[in-house]
Amino acid sequence: MPAKTHNSITPANRKQIRATIRLARQSLSAEQQFADSKQATDTSLSTILKLNARRVALYLTNDGELDTKPLIEMLWQHNIAVYLPRLHPFSAGNLLFLRYQADSVLEQNSLGIWEPKLDITQMMLTHQLDVVITPLVAFDKHGNRMGMGGGYYDRTLANWQSIGKPLPIGYAHDCQQVDSLPCQHWDVPLPMIITPSAVYQYSDKVIPAS
Q1: For residue 168, what is the enclosing H or E element?
Q2: 55, 81, 85, 208: most buried by Cβ count inside 10 Å?
Q3: Is the residue at 208 inside a domain?
Q4: What pTM was computed for the model?
């Protein structure tokens, strides 16, 4: 399991890191965003195909994040089912995952993020997913991940190793890497992170799709 750093854990440190990295990715030009997305899409698709994954959760890009739209479209072309997160309507702080297709109806949630309209017939339980492409604000050389602070993905992925699925893969711009992150015991490190220029693998454990 990737190591965690625990020095100087303060809300101020986390807030400063988030502000700095968000500004860095928001400052990328449209041309750089396009090039980054293309490179990361090619690498991610290759990785997903090698894993023989058939059910993949992603997210819709927001706030300067690495654009996921090209990857979603490539997965559709390979007949891989795509799922998007939705805030759980009855369990605060948790996510549901719903099938996302070209004609799916989307609506904005309380955080201003687009998500699928609630339809239980399109829902997939987390442990039934093969891969979860995970958003993040920052990551470090040990595979530690910093999100926006809501803890949604830490709760979603808390048991992935004991259950064996889904395999979480971080998705980020190169500028989102830092040397080390202040971590708490509930933070879930990632076994793999894909950026436009590299694939960082922090665990030898590969989870095959069923």
Answers
A1: strand 167-171
A2: 85
A3: no
A4: 0.87
| Burial class, 120, CB count within 10 angstroms (exposed 0-12 / middle 13-18 / buried 19+) | exposed
Round to whole Å and give the CA distance between 94 and 85: 10
In a domain, 52, yes or no: yes
The answer to the question of residue 22 being in a domain is: yes
- Each residue's pLDDT tens digit, 195-204: 999 999 987 6
Look up the CATH number of the domain holding residue 149: 3.40.50.10420
Amino acid at 94: N
Sheet with 177-178: strands ordered across? 145-146, 138-140, 177-178
For residue 131, give its domain range. 11-201
Computed over every residue of the chain, the mean pLDDT equals 88
Total structural domains in the chain? 1
Tokens representing 54 are: 């058939």
pLDDT band at 185; cut points 50, 70, 90: low
